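ESCALATION

Customer reports they have been waiting on this structure for their group meeting. Please prioritize. Original submission:
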Amino acid sequence: MSSGLLELFSGIGAAGRAWGGSVVGAIDQNPHANATYRANHGLAPRAWNLAGVTAAQLSAFQAERWWLSPPCQPFTVRGARRDLEDPRVKPLLRVLAILCELRPPVVAMENVPGFVASATRGELRAALIAAGYTLDERLLCPTSLGVPMRRQRYYLVARLGRDGGHRSQFETPAAAPPARPLVGFLDEVPEPALYVSEALISTWGHSVNILEAKNPTAVATCFTSAYGRSPVRSGSYLRDGGGVRYFSPEEILRLMGFPGGFAFPAGLDRHIRWDLAGNTLSVDAVRSLALET
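Update from on-call: job pushed to the front of the queue and completed.
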């Protein structure tokens, strides 16, 4: 096997950006995510449905490290928490069966905190332990790394043949003071179209999180793929010299830890960019796991 990374449910490629080294393959069905991945990583993801993938297809990548970011909807309130009854779990279960057969040295995964109490996690743990993996599970939020954005997530790192005992740490580390204030992540000249109407603020202002751009302790709430469509519980708003506005997709990417040179393909609609940014990973959080692997 090579030492390369295989990104499954690869999105726009946050795991490969965080873990470094060579990425030998990526798989995702979202065409906009795949176009963004290709533009920034020089690798074209395979648009395969992982519910029907074969062991031979995944073995051909010869990857020693596998990263999984399966759909979170089966484990969220908005997704009705159908867990194993949700058809969107099938790709994860298929990949789990194959990786337990092929047994790559390192497997890692991310999902929402609701995954911790799921029956799917129970099946995942049982299968990996039976296949000889030692598990390290935790909840981690970028705020504990000094990033001014809340995005608590479940992370798993499974290592083959290490008998150090399984570890599950579900008390989130305390938030650290922002290493960089929020203003350092913002666009120099915001797009006028990002500013919201007074009607929206008067209607929803009591239930939205509005941050002051110059507040050095401001911390954004978690941005989701519904940002820009749902006025509440999808991410913070920002008050600056021009009024109250949305965060741009590029600002969200910076908060997610993506470097300045990372860019969406030209002409991609803002709502699609928000969707891709809201579905990606915190590069800083994933990198903190990689340093321990």
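Sent to customer with the following note: Strands lie at 5-8, 23-27, 65-68, 106-111, 133-140, 153-160, 167-169, 210-212, 237-240, 243-246.
Escalation resolved.
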